[in-house]
Amino acid sequence: MALLKRGLAGEPVKILQAKLGVNADGQFGPATEEALKAYQKQHGLAADGIAGPDTFAALALPELVLLTVGSKGETVKKLQAALGITADGAYGAGTAKAVSAFQEKNGLEADGMAGPVTLAKIDVFAAAFSPEAVAKSQAAPGTVSAGGKPAEAGAAAAPKKSIWQSITEFFS
Fold it and tell me: Which CATH code, of 3.60.40.10, 3.40.50.300, 1.10.101.10, 3.30.70.1110, is assigned to 8-64?
């Protein structure tokens, strides 16, 4: 599940921090958590200090939305309704199957996960998931290795990958 919470580090954390107006060091610590809770409370979201699809949507950060098995909320419900399946707001196996079928039908990689590339092809999401948002959702070539770690200097440039692959844990 694509969530940001205390103890994670990476480019998505840096993007969230910049939007929240806190030091954008890419490490989700106590200051980020408190700023996020305040934002969530102010905007009628569950003030749990965990950023997921609904928080990313409220923050206008479509590049961070990645719906996968285990995701929950209004964004999932909106996706399910658009796919014509039961809209219960819980991304389970049935939703993943419907997303895979949609992806296959639309010439996308059929991985069953709904990120910016997939969501941009669904009418109800198209306005929020502009080509710019899709581009922001990807790491620049060579910045993320296959294992999700930063690529070494001088390494051959890799194809663009999801910025979510830059996520690591910084607490033990």
Answer: 1.10.101.10
Our measurement of the distance from residue 100's CA atom to the centroid of its chain's CA atoms, rounded to an integer in Å, reads: 18
Domain ranges for the chain, please list them.
Answer: 8-64, 74-129, 138-166
Is this prediction's pTM over 0.85?
no
From first to last of its 172 residues, the chain has per-residue pLDDT tens of: 689 999 999 999 999 999 999 999 999 999 999 999 999 999 999 999 999 999 999 999 999 999 999 999 999 999 999 999 999 999 999 999 999 999 999 999 999 999 999 999 999 999 999 999 899 898 754 443 333 334 333 333 444 568 888 888 875 4
Return the H-helix or E-strand segment holding 169. Answer: strand 168-169
Distance CA(99)–CA(121), nearest Å, equals: 11
